[in-house]
Amino acid sequence: MTSQLKILGEFETVRLEREDGIAILTLNRPEKMNSFTAQMMLDMIAAFDITDADDETGAVIVTGAGERAFCAGADLSSGGATFDYAKRGEAARDEAKVGDVYRDGGGRVTLRIYDSLKPVICAVNGAAVGIGATMQLPMDIRIASTTARFGFVFNRRGINPEAASSWFLPRLVGISQALEWCYSGRVFTAQEALDGGLVRSIHAPEDLLPAAKAIAREFIDNTAPVSCALTRQMMWRMMGAAHPMDAHKADSRAIQSRGQSADAKEGVTSFLEKRPARFPNTVSADLPDVFPGYTPPKFS
């Protein structure tokens, strides 16, 4: 039986499709090596709003169109004014101005991915430098093609790491590795990314997307969507917690809520009956609040 491909949204710079419960978000400027623009920022944020609200989406894969690049960094067509937001005056940036500071567009994307309710897998199909590297950091699993290249090139452009990467990158690979990559700004291979803990595995180009889909299937076919959404929130938020008691409080609230749910009854019953589980709860309707009073910090 052929699976049905569904278009989840219409965008200028990305494609968003769903097939067999897996949403595939494709950065879609192949003629520009999928370089990042203010419009791509808006499109990516809107795409994650859609996947969060779509109960038929169990996981999200992010990849790039074409064979050359995942995302070759910021679009440099504005020349020396590329990073001078005040001079560029783009509406997408102006509406994010807080006081006299223009919010970093890459950070707006990574913070939105951080809040995702669905597991996020990054399939790096080619060059991934600048924001092409940092946008991956809040994604849960990164896999790479043998042709992939990575670079935290900011110091070589006279700027600095962005997209909240100073928070994400050291937590993923350790402070020493993070600083070495950022100090040098050099572009490095997929093998070095694997050795440094940035990616999970390396695949031949033709095997990359099937490998990402196989990982997603493990999540979708065997686990409860509400449990995955809770797990994602709890793991990421607890990385910045001051004490394990914060985790204990969230765990306790979550277990109390989930233990009373139809999902928990189905999970135990299906195990005892030696059959696949059919979890009835949905993220849109049944996600419990295990962080009462939590509101995301505001930019100020």
Q: What structural category do the secondary elements indicate?
A: alpha/beta
Q: Trace the largest sheet across and list its strands.
A: 1-2-3-4-8-10-13
State the end-to-end CA separation. Answer: 53 Å
Q: Quick one: CATH class of the largest domain?
A: Alpha Beta
Number of domains: 2
| Overall number of strands | 13
- Element order, helices and strands? EEEHEEHHEEHEEHEEHHEHEHHHHH
Major beta-sheet overview: 7 strands, mixed
The CATH homologous superfamily of the largest domain corresponds to: 2-enoyl-CoA Hydratase, Chain A, domain 1
What is the typical, i.e. mean, pLDDT?
94
Poorly predicted spans: none
Rg calc: 20 Å
The proportion of strand residues reads 15-25%
Count of helices? Answer: 13
CATH topology of the largest domain: 2-enoyl-CoA Hydratase, Chain A, domain 1
The amount of helix comes to 40-55%
Name given to the CATH architecture of the largest domain: Alpha-Beta Complex
Overall geometric form? globular
Description:
42% of the residues lie in helices and 17% in strands. With 300 residues, it is α/β, with parallel strands linked by helices. The chain folds into two domains: 216 residues, 2-enoyl-CoA Hydratase, Chain A, domain 1 (Alpha-Beta Complex), CATH 3.90.226; 63 residues, Lyase 2-enoyl-coa Hydratase, Chain  A, domain 2 (Orthogonal Bundle). The strands form three sheets. The protein has a seven-stranded mixed sheet with strand order 1-2-3-4-8-10-13, sandwiched between helices. Strand 2 and strand 3 form a beta hairpin. The longest helix is centred in the C-terminal third of the chain and has 18 residues. The protein is globular and about 65 Å long. The N and C termini lie far apart (53 Å).
